[in-house]
Amino acid sequence: MYVAVKGGERAIENAHAWLAEERRGDRAVPELTVAQIREQMALAVNRVMAEGSLYDPDLAALAIKQARGDLIEAIFLIRAYRTTLPRLGASRPVDTAAMACIRRISATFKDAPGGQVLGPTFDYTHRLLDFALMAECDVPPAPEASATPGPVPHITGFLNRDGLIQTEAAGEATPPDLTREPLELPASRPLRLQALARGDEGFLLGLAYSTQRGYARNHAFVGELRIGTVAVEVDIPELGFAIEVAEIELTECETVNQFAGSKTEPPQFTRGYGLVFGQTERKAISMALVDRALRWRELGEDFLGAAAQDEEFVLSHADNIQATGFLEHIKLPHYVDFQSELELVRRIRAEAELAQAQPEAAE
Amino acid sequence: MNDYTFAYLDEQTKRMIRRAILKGVAIPGYQVPFASREMPMPYGWGTGGVQVTAACLTPEDVLKVIDQGADDTTNAVSIRKFFQRTAGVAVTEATVEASLIQTRHRIPEAPLTEAQILVYQVPIPEPLRFLEPREVETRRMHALEDYGLMHVKLYEDIARHGEIATAYAYPVKVEGRYVMDPSPIPKFDNPKLSDSPALQLFGAGREQRIYALPPYTRVVSLDFDDHPFVASKADHACDLCGAGDTYLDEVIIDDAGGRMFVCSDTDHCGSRRRAGHVGRLGVPGKEVA
Amino acid sequence: MHDMALQGGFAEAPTQSARAFRAVLNALARPGTIETLVGAQPPAPASIAAGVALLTLADATTPVHLAGAHDTPDLRDWLTFHTGAPLVGAAEAVFALGTWVALAPITRFAMGSPEYPDRSATLIVEMPALHPAGARLTGPGIRDTAHLNLPDIAALRANAADFPLGRDFLFCAGDRLAALPRSTQVEAV
């Protein structure tokens, strides 16, 4: 006698219980706290905030803990939570020129007003495992300089002054929001930038790298990379002015890219732009390169068939929550579709065999 | 889950989805873009269907959820539980008792009624997508009613295999206008799409599309005069209930390649067995809970 | 803003709007079917059904046009308070409310584009009464034929002839509502 598979509900509950146990790991080892993750896994927290599109370090840290360190799973938790939040208003655009920088470097000028500030970077660390970290160890305080005096100007501003870089006109239009409206193609640059800002770091890294290796090469230099905090201000109509509601950490990257000029325009540099929550500079630089590659049409360049130039390709595949969901759904039961294919293949094979056995009759 | 509103989605999101559903109903077979939300289950696992169901549910509804025709597959269980928890609606496994049925990959065997809504989970809503990957292009094709590419593909199938080599997600034409993807249902189910007394709604979350077939809408599976569409199934009867007219799952039962065929619609099979029908391997009156 | 604007909304929005939507959905999916809507009390001259439909479907993202005698300060305030919908001219409207005479000619309203036929207006038409009699309706949603008293058969036939473009209609009288999508063929009897 055949008994159909039953008990899906209990199987799910048991799987969840097992998962919770595995997440906790060996109970002889103290449990991680959310504060520990927030403070000591800050770059993971930053990535989860950036791709989750929600600036909340505590929730991002909680998501990482719950997801057992699987960052895409953590991003998914944050996205699903974010969707349910009411929209209370929109902030003013943040002013990155007023950023209180902890890091600010330029590859295009040896020095510039405001100086080069390395900040807390891995850049010149030798990648040698520090076995001292195997044990708990106290970190001596880093030397401190006196605070940077006020905001530092954008490097590209200097080029802009001389007309050497393409001007990006300020716009009053409200940028579109792909979390509230379906993606429509062709997309405007603000919409593209939003998609890139929450896009998968690995996907953008690969695309950006491909442009460097010649797939729509755009000769990028890091004009400026800055990391620091900016104020978030919201206009209060009843008061008639804006108030600061938060301070957030951002990474901003402006690339300076070659441009040959055209019949109507003298040669000048162009820009790619990246802006990401937290300290996430690999992502910000990748974003700037891909942004620049996607601008081929407006800058009168040729479409070279490169993936990074292909807006529909990039925007349709940058979101890791969409990608991972669809990728992993092929492990769901598909036996109904498979059965229909099985029958089709059997039938076509049977007909082919019949035709082979009776060649005359088949003609 | 008490922090979430009725049927999980906030009111603004539900309004947006409801407007898209209404336009879909007004333009049968046309894919309405909608701002699909991130749901607490992964994209590709029914988020489109879940959002459509959430926008349609009322507290009085009786919900049935099936995956591959079965009520007890894990994903069906998971989605049903989600709505029990967030909407507090009554649930059932009986097709005839349900007022709203969410499905993945099947249309129930029992005839649907005017009092029912069938919500399909759709992975890739664009029937032309595998012929033309670009949305800009396929949108233009639908606008111009330019379906030549699809006919070429089907014709090439016939040239190569002697028949149209599509066994599921078999494309249909709706009211003589839009070519539509019926979701990955086996083509056996295609005839049930047409002239159904029930309203049929299709939700594709990741792809951000909603479309609809109002009741009694004319839906024709694409074919050629000399190669007419055939709604095929395994050439067997159900080994449990003996039905000869249902879609069957093939189950491998031993190491020697032995197999049996059973109804994919578990509710239909169960009710037939309760009514005394017995198939080749069924045991009268014993196995049905 | 008068106190009146603050009243007459949904008391229990999630469930009331869910029931109201199902009624509107059923009406549109089965042209000619007359549904009853409850839960809102908009200021005159708007009907209960029209008020419920707007509370259910309109919000800050859907511009609304109030036509003719429906363009009153009371109704404007009520709609703004309860839905946040911007009030606009006919051409930009996603929803429009008025009598047939006030809304006419319906060609003023968006009919969508060949790429996006869904970007079309839905007109909420106030009627003296609704009866399952009059014009003969055929098409999707209708098993054989249905009948509904319609205000202007010629204009509605012209609208259907533009399918898949066109406007869609919700007809309201008191607490009753019927609907006519662009896909319905309309004939005088």
From TrEMBL, chain A:
It comes from the Bacteria. It holds the Pfam family PhnI. GO terms for molecular function: lyase activity. The keyword Lyase applies. One of its GO terms (biological process) is organic phosphonate metabolic process. Keywords: Lyase. This is Carbon-phosphorus lyase complex subunit PhnI. It comes from Phaeovulum veldkampii DSM 11550.
UniProtKB/TrEMBL annotation, chain B:
It is an enzyme of class 4 (lyase). It catalyses: alpha-D-ribose 1-methylphosphonate 5-phosphate + AH2 + S-adenosyl-L-methionine = alpha-D-ribose 1,2-cyclic phosphate 5-phosphate + methane + 5'-deoxyadenosine + L-methionine + A + H(+). The keyword Iron applies. Its EC number is 4.7.1.1. GO terms for biological process: organic phosphonate catabolic process. GO terms for molecular function: 4 iron, 4 sulfur cluster binding; alpha-D-ribose 1-methylphosphonate 5-phosphate C-P-lyase activity; metal ion binding. Keywords: 4Fe-4S, Iron, Iron-sulfur, Lyase, Metal-binding, S-adenosyl-L-methionine. Belongs to the PhnJ family. This is Alpha-D-ribose 1-methylphosphonate 5-phosphate C-P lyase. It comes from Phaeovulum veldkampii DSM 11550.
From TrEMBL, chain C:
GO terms for molecular function: lyase activity. GO terms for biological process: organic phosphonate metabolic process. This is Phosphonate C-P lyase system protein PhnH. The lineage of its organism: Bacteria, Pseudomonadati, Pseudomonadota, Alphaproteobacteria, Rhodobacterales. Keywords: Lyase. The keyword GTP-binding does not apply. It comes from Phaeovulum veldkampii DSM 11550. It comes from the Bacteria. NCBIfam families: PhnH_redo.
